[in-house]
Amino acid sequence: MPVQEREYDIILLGASGFTGRLVAEYLLAQYGIGGDLRWAMAGRNEAKLESIRLQLQGYEPAAPIPILVADTSDASAMAGLASQTRVICTTVGPYALYGSSVVEACAHNGTHYCDLTGEVQWMRRMIDAHQAAAAASGARIVHTCGFDSIPSDLGVLFAQNTMQEAHGVAARRVKYRVTGFGGGLSGGTLASMLNMMEEVKQDPGLADVMADPYALNPQGAPTGSDVNDQTGAIYDEDFASWTLPFMMAGINTRVVRRSNALLDFAWGEDFNYDEAVLAEGKGALQSKITALAMTAGTNALSIGPLRGLASRFMPKPGEGPDQETREQGYYNILLHANHPDDMEKDIRVKVSGDMDPGYGSTSKMLAECAVCLARDNLTVSGGFWTPASAMGTRLIERLQQNAGVSFTVE
Question: Residue 89 belongs to what H/E stretch?
């Protein structure tokens, strides 16, 4: 069936999970059901889906949310699901365990796709395996459509657009600095991180892929001078503050660098990008001790028995904070764009979210990505894209209008 004639605009896969329910809740509140946006919920357990529908709509709604039953372990079921919709929006992770069949089905059926993965090694596998099929079918495959990596990817795009408008040049370096952060940890993100470590244990060669600053760039594309992500405390002259490692940098930086490559190196082949947390109010010694503790904690998770012990105390996939915690959460990020020739022309922008990053804001960002892919007149053809390279300023507009994410010039 041609894409424009399919029964649904969006199928939300994994709607019975914690984050999936939040996405469904947002779609219902923002776009309704039975209106212009045709969407459905899908998952492997019909009873759980019906329970979610009951929670969202109550008894005997005039227009019930359609429910579709399909298991990601069934490739033919995924192909059938993909053939019914313009977009599959999935929250079923870890994606390295449960996402490959979905990507394959979308790539071969011309179905657009978005997810919340931060699994670099899996994204690399999917790009290599299915880029040709997606390009041929017209499917736009877009990973990392949540807190990792939309604030990074679109924040850099916004900063670069601002620099171009003000000075007619691209910034050759952008620094991403987290200044404030509140909310619950994502069980799905943690599960994905632990699964990545398990994969590295089984295949040590994956460590080289994950350590490569340009791991997600198109094969054969030029690489710049960026090196490993920050692990210690570093003083940043532009912010007049010490900085600490940021746990999501290993994902976000690679997505931003891929965006630059997919945008025909609009920011230059020598573009530099890094991420860190501002240690505001902390001196050198306190910052260095904090950084050492953070690095030690990360290294401890690479040890199998310690990883197993830690997982018993971490949030599990499908678990998350209550509504009050989500609504009281927030994040504030500053991005400093260095003018290539004149530091007096440097530009600083801010990205902020009005809910906790791991659940409240992420669910709204993912939903708007799905709507953008389904509805908007995007210029890119089929293939594997990033949020910035596929949806760009149109997605920035959507997030500001609907999802409580703001992009402002400081």
Answer: strand 85-90
